[in-house]
Amino acid sequence: MTILKKTLRIAPVLAAASLLSGCNYVLLDPAGWVAEQQRDLLIYSTLLMLIIIIPVMIMGVYFPWRYRANRPDNTDYEPDFDHSTKFEIFIWGVPVLIIAALGTLTYIYTHKLDPYRPLDASFGKPIEVEAVALDWKWLFIYPEQGVATVNELAIPAGRPVNLKLSASSMMNAFSVPALAGMIYAMPAMETKLHMIADKPGTFYGRSANYSGPGYSQMEFQTLAMTDADFDTWVSKVRGSGVELTQDAYLELDKPSFSVPVAHYAGVMSDLFQRIVGLCVEPGKVCMHQMMMQDKQGGGGLDGLKDKGLYEYDEHRAQDGHGELITSQRETPSAETIAKAAAINQLCTSETLISAAAAAMSLAPEKGAANAL
Fold first, then answer.
1. Closest Cα to residue 193, out of 123, 275, 116, 120?
2. pLDDT score, position 335
3. Are 172 and 8 in contact (CB under 8 A)?
4. Beta bridge partners of 316
5. How much is the pLDDT for 362?
6. 180-200, pLDDT tens digit by residue?
7. What percent of the chain has a predicted confidence (pLDDT) above 90?
8. Contact between residue 328 and residue 315 where contact means Cβ atoms under 8 Å apart
9. DSSP letter for each residue of 313-365
């Protein structure tokens, strides 16, 4: 009977241990300076809040027991009690001090860990990486090395990583908990994140924002390695022989699940900027050029015939069986491609921008593009 009682006593402990055995404490065991600062903020905030939480939990048990109705001595019963200055100072003063301390910590760490703030130069020369959330995989472009990967992020340990992020169709969130915080990747926008790995290792990364049926498989590995190993990895990727051309990207952009790691030895020029501008597809005017045209007065009624140059939706949908389908892209005519290219070039040349402004002043109802 004694053995049975002991077993019943330790059973809850064993059950809790078995449940916690599968937990991943990566947030409390980070591998990079940024994640370490976030861990410290989490711990400091928790300890500060425990200053009020622990006494409240103790008092929640002690007071009902101490002042129960059937206690042996109830001479301290004071039905007319209504105020105590000392008690009021304690119950209001301590929380105010805790909130002030939490506010100060939050202010300091918010500016210190601003995802747009580059890491200190003392960490070394940063590496540039452009990340794109596709459906449902991650594309990583290395502009300095001229290579790209799918679902594999390789970085040199001990060097800052300057990440630029965007998305092709829907909002996602980039997350490598061991190295940095989470940042959103959104279509037609560019966000930034800075992180660093203190030591070589492999760290889990994924999309942390629900984005459709392939969300649960939108994972990747972050490979932190020495500078020599990183150079070897770059050479390996360059030896793959596959180029990420315009056609290759448009094919990659189609929705797919459980995509294996892929390497690209070369990347289309200005691919990331075109992804942000939603103009990788031939015959599309980039978003920032469209905004520049709008600022100059737009195309007026005559611009309606060119509305196809400014349509960016890909008309993705699901059929009746839950399978994802993508409408066939209509092949734009040579005239459409040429017109879109001319508008894009027009809005990126300072000389032609000035000419467009002058032309618009002559024909403001038609806008700069049509006037020219």
1. 116
2. 60
3. no
4. 326
5. 37
6. 989 999 999 999 999 999 999
7. 47
8. no
9. ---EEE-TTS-EEEPPPPPPPHHHHHHHHHHHHHTT-HHHHHHHHHHHHHSTT
In angstroms, the CA 128 to CA 163 distance is 6
3-state DSSP assignment of residue 37 = helix
Half-sphere exposure for 91 (CA within 13 Å, toward CB): 8
Give the distance between the most distant pair of CA atoms in the chain: 101
Whole-prediction pTM value? 0.76
Mean pLDDT over 356-367 rounds to 41
Q: Is the dihedral of CA 31, 36, 38, 41 positive or negative?
A: positive
Find residue 339's DSSP bridge partners. none
As a whole number of angstroms, the distance between CA 287 and CA 293 comes to 10
**Are 155 and 178 in contact, with CB atoms under 8 Å apart?**
no
Q: What is the DSSP string of 117-186?
A: SPPPGGG---EEEEEEEETTEEEEEETTTTEEEESEEEEETTS-EEEEEEESSS-EEEE-TTT---EEE-
Q: What's the CA gap between 205 and 217, in Å, rounded?
A: 11
3-state SS class at 89:
helix
Tokens linked to 29 = 């065991």
Which pLDDT tens digit goes with each residue over 198-222?
Answer: 999 999 999 998 888 888 899 999 9
Higher pLDDT, residue 317 or 142: 142
Say how far apart CA 203 and CA 278 lie, in whole Å.
31
Which regions of 32-134 does DSSP assign to beta strands (E)?
Answer: 127-134
147 class by beta-carbon count within 10 Å (0-12 exposed, 13-18 middle, 19+ buried):
buried
Q: Is the pLDDT of residue 370 over 90?
A: no
User: What's the one-letter identity of residue 279?
Assistant: C
> What are residue 222's phi and psi, to 5 degrees?
-100, 115
d(CA 131, CA 151): 10
**Mean pLDDT, residues 277-293:** 82
